[in-house]
TrEMBL record:
Its cofactor is Mn(2+). GO terms for biological process: putrescine biosynthetic process from arginine, via agmatine. It comes from Nocardioides cavernaquae. NCBIfam families: agmatinase (TIGR01230), PRK02190.1 (NF002564). The gene is speB. GO terms for molecular function: agmatinase activity; metal ion binding. This is Agmatinase.
Length: 329
């Protein structure tokens, strides 16, 4: 039988991190999918970095399906390899990285689901893990930020998205995928000196959307700015805004152009390339990243796994940035 993992901490008796299944020994298309073929958290006991799935999409305003993203991103992550040449780090050897599985959130009760996400995050953080969350729709950033505030106080936020997600309500509902950052602002979860959107584009409801957003403290780097100014200038400006504050990075995959991420619920033309996103993230090496998420992959609209592959590489980039910062506990 093919084991999901080739080794466990107990079976190796070693204190070295347990890495992914070796794809030169067990074909990468064999076995049950975990993120990057890493061990499950329960197989290794603890992790410096945990990849947590949140299969939740009850907050969407248009095309549903992000509930299927954690499973699809794990499948698409089978081809990731253990060394990151761009950052010169072997994340899975530098620290213990493990797949923490999925939060079983209630699809019929959004506040209850959000509490479950926060509770799951809290348990992992208590055990000494940093978390890279794979959503799910963007609603789930709110409970993750609530937990960040509890641990670090108000955090800096770098938000990659086509959309502002600082809208007020939809159909009178407070907790939706278009509103998490307004709720976060209202709940004082954010360090209003250090808030940035990147990749913004597309039509808005009114000009007030922009004045509201600016009032909350956000700075906007549009998709056009990235094209006109280039990645190095954008990275420099973002780093200046963030400084060494505790930083949460929230990545809506629809920040990418639909050519690079067709599998998403609210696609907008004119976005950045996956190469630009990876380059900007790489430029954030050494910042004080305390948590991150990748959200809004909707596999039903994907083609040839383009979006799930992009998301798996984005998650790998985030794990690598965290691993560069060393062991968390
Ligand atoms: N967070 C995402 N992906 N989309 C928000 C779009 C909200 C709207 O329908 O206007
Ligand atoms: Zn979006
Ligand atoms: Zn979003």
């Amino acid at each position: 039988m093919i084991e999901a993992t080739t080794a466990t901490a107990a079976s190796t008796g070693s204190t070295e991190p347990v890495g992914p299944v070796d794809s030169s020994k067990v074909p990468r298309f064999a076995g049950i999918a975990t993120f990057a073929r890493l061990p499950r958290l329960e197989d290794v006991g603890r992790a410096d970095i945990a990849v947590m799935g949140v299969p939740f999409d009850s907050g969407v305003s248009y095309r549903p399906g992000a509930r299927f993203a954690p499973a699809q991103i794990r499948e698409a992550s089978r081809l990731l390899r253990p060394y990151h040449p761009g950052l010169d780090v072997s994340p899975f050897a530098a620290v213990q990285v493990a797949d923490a599985g999925d939060i079983a959130c209630n699809p019929y009760n959004i506040p209850e689901a959000l509490d479950a996400v926060q509770e799951g995050a809290s348990t992992l953080l208590d055990a000494g893990s940093k978390i890279v969350t794979i959503g799910g729709d963007h609603t789930i950033a709110l409970p993750l930020l609530r937990e960040m505030k509890r641990r670090h106080g108000p955090v800096a936020l770098l938000h990659f998205d086509a959309h502002l997600d600082t809208w007020d309500t939809y159909f009178g509902a407070d907790y939706t995928h278009g509103t998490p950052f307004r709720r976060a602002f209202e709940e004082d979860l954010l360090d209003t000196e250090a808030l940035a959107h990147a990749g913004i584009r597309g039509p808005l409801y009114s000009k007030d959307d922009l004045t509201d957003d600016a009032r909350m403290g956000f700075g906007i780097t549009t998709a056009m700015d990235i094209m006109n100014e280039g990645v190095p200038a954008v990275v420099q400006a973002l780093r200046e805004r963030i400084g060494d504050r505790p930083l949460y990075i929230s990545i809506d995959i629809d920040c990418l152009d639909p050519a690079h991420a067709p599998g998403t619920g609210t696609p907008e033309a004119g976005g950045m390339t996956s190469r630009e996103l990876l380059a900007i993230l790489r430029g954030l090496a050494g910042t004080n990243i305390v948590g991150a998420d990748v959200v809004e992959v909707a596999p039903a609209y994907d083609h040839a796994d383009i979006t799930a592959i992009a998301a798996s590489h984005v998650a790998y980039e985030l794990v690598s940035l965290m691993a560069l910062n060393g062991r968390s506990a």
